[in-house]
């Protein structure tokens, strides 16, 4: 058995090489941590503050109500919520009862939600009244028995809640499956924690996997505890720290880094239910977060904002960027902005994927290497291999990034073949997750990302599946064929472009481009919608008759390179 080298350990400083992970359920670990910080603020929501004591009390109330509906160990609840207290409370309450939380994007289409219900075997659902009709329709061809309906105003301060309910809340006609959230939490009976093995399934998050179609990533209590503790220790989180939960809870990055890791360290999370730049900047001015966590598009918005540039950022310890590649130009611009404002924090890159909860490596706070995404967290192993094999590459050679350690998923739900394809036992005796990402490691153990092996596109940290977008466009009566690629702008951030072949090319027009984009918006989540459309008389084909997307990618790359030189 070969020993995995860890040249990165010399950059750990005071961070231990290994952590002691409690062999308990995730909720039991969070509850024990909460006792240490009882009256400290756990989270804030639109001006309302909630202590750790209140967090636990609310989880216990919801768990009691949920059990009264018949929820038992092993049952699955789909949580279709933005980042708000009720979604977080439900996540931990389900875990307390020994259940499984399936985290679903609330802007998913009806058909997508139905797919997630059936993949996860959900019997229970939590959602907002504004999404109820869509969720209720999606539940008709599923095992869903109860739909718990909450309001976004539930946890707002009294005045905001009153204004929202009076002027903005819409009345929704509830069906026979519906149960009101506020009715459920009035049940007072205390419920004992379920007996849970730390290795049991706790949550399902959704990822493109390696084939470009949504997969249900099965994460255990152990996975979630380990990753949360690693992030907390890496950032040195404590009661003095505040993190903005800008990334949503249905995203591994948002759930684990911005919520779970915060609770592991006794810090506070500022819950942001919807991204509105002006409101976010006001929140940053008021709350003075010690850490910013986000994707490149967030930092680009900050750099471009005159109001953000006016903030004195001396309260910021660090800013981390993940879920997508951080352009070097964007990093330089943000770091300069912070420096000019009197701050010392740097924008640092990290790396992770849903199949390992989320972040598994990041740049050390005391050492920076340009272009690198950092080094592995405690207990996480990483190496570079010949793609699809266990043959390790030499230092500096490009290959597939593979990971091993406590963060690595149990597998893909109801997909043994794909699980066996990405989780492989190597000759060193360890099970390794083959990420499908190409990169290399330098002599110090710092890792560098090059490109994705598969065709999946990342937009603002979210997975976009070209086949799904193409299928929607091809369903339009005027479209003969379509091919979707990711294109980069000056900051190397990705957006979706569609090349469209019409049944009748004479009908090509700017008006039709707008029509196709609006058509896509009706069927796709917004990150998947094309931002740009180009009509082609014919799309390039491979020798076996498939649309050759690589030709289009190369043409686009050359075109944009030429445009840049001409500027």
TrEMBL record:
It comes from the Bacteria. Residues 468-546 form the AMP-binding enzyme C-terminal domain. It is an enzyme of class 6 (ligase). Its EC number is 6.2.1.3. InterPro entries: AMP-bd_C, AMP-bd_C_sf, AMP-binding_CS, AMP-dep_synth/lig_dom. The keyword Plastid does not apply. Coiled coil: none annotated. SUPFAM superfamilies: Acetyl-CoA synthetase-like (SSF56801). It holds the Pfam family AMP-binding_C. One of its GO terms (molecular function) is long-chain fatty acid-CoA ligase activity. Residues 31-412 form the AMP-dependent synthetase/ligase domain. Keywords: Ligase. Belongs to the ATP-dependent AMP-binding enzyme family. This is Long-chain acyl-CoA synthetase. It comes from Thermotomaculum hydrothermale.
